[in-house]
Amino acid sequence: MENQLKISVGKGFFRFLIFLVLAGLLDLVCGKVLQFLYYKQKSGYDYRASYSIDSTNAPGLIFGSSRANHHYVTHILADSFNMAFYNVGRDGQSILYDYAILKAIVKRYTPRLILLDCQDEELFYFTDSYERLSSLLPYAKTHPEINQTVQMRSGFEKLKMISQVYPYNSLFFSILGGISGGTKGRVEEENGYLPLDRPFHSLNVDQNKFLSTKEPDSNKIKTFDSFIDLCRQKGIELYVVMSPYFDPVNVKFIKTIDEQIRYEAVPHFDYSRFPGLVGHIEYFSDDKHLNRKGSEIFTRDLINNIRSYRLANKLQVIAINKGQHILSTP
Predict the structure, then answer these.
(1) Which domain holds residue 63?
(2) Which of 66, 105, 182, 237 fits as disulfide partner to 113, beta carbons 3.0 to 4.6 Å?
(3) Which tens digits make up the pLDDT trace of 263-290?
């Protein structure tokens, strides 16, 4: 009886080992297939992320969330500054994503100019900010600097990453769309810029109520500072920009980011209450996003402000060298 029990346990353990081996092989094969298909995409958010991380060499880059995607017209920037621009922004992401992408990019080359678009709630805590870092999972094993950010999702990411399929969970249909070009018809893309032409509609979200219980996120604050520091170390010209909102009444959470900007002494342009666009329904697609017309107006005005800042900075340097004092700047 005892021998039969041992034999039965031994067979069960052997079957379990076989199951683990087969499951591991299946995970490996499926993961490799999904990885191959993932990098075959020619359009969509994943394609733009891959292009940003591994391919772009544009001297000018735009970082941020969907407001970066839709507000900064790359061809106008390129014509004005006489250099190529690429928009690496991604919908729903935060400074956590931005910094991971920046670290990957500067390992390949050093951009000359970066525009970092920040929302008023940029440095506040949201669980979504961490959950959406899943979009970086496909790059975690090949880019150590990105893996550092991915680990912020949870304490179990290292264990989950043992699976070859895990990085591509829930991506199958988006991968097929990216390969077939099915995502191309959604929004016309221009070097990462995604213009919006839809009629205005309200998001109907009470941002004040939504954010009233939120607290500043120490991870985001530290990452924001690290983004600025890395640009300084690499000699990259950086401007932090808060692009326009339709209704400035809801923009009440700027204090935290303003404090960090002053602390870091980085050039900053606040367009959240820009009179030429705020409240003008003809220039917005919704409460938070400019349409094509609005983004062109905003981009051109931002260019003028950057030029004025550069001129003022140049005049200050000249004046200091000559022992003069500049009383005011443009």
Answers:
(1) 28-321
(2) 237
(3) 778 899 989 888 889 889 999 999 899 9
